[in-house]
Amino acid sequence: MGKKTSPGFNIILPLFKTIYEYTLYGKDYRIAYFNDNILIFSGKLVSFNTVEQKDNDLVNISITL
Description:
The chain is an alpha+beta fold. The chain has one helix and five strands. Strands 1-5-4 form a three-stranded antiparallel β-sheet, covered by helices on one side.
């Protein structure tokens, strides 16, 4: 979850939209994810979804690798 006006959020959303387009057109790509003790190398995007909340400026992102 993040604010629509957040600089980091405005970098991540277009990045994942581009990766999602790669999956639609069958182009080759790899995703690496590092967080605490979770390491994923050569991951693929399974699903990507954004939901904007109407009562504030927050957006929920759901990403499945």
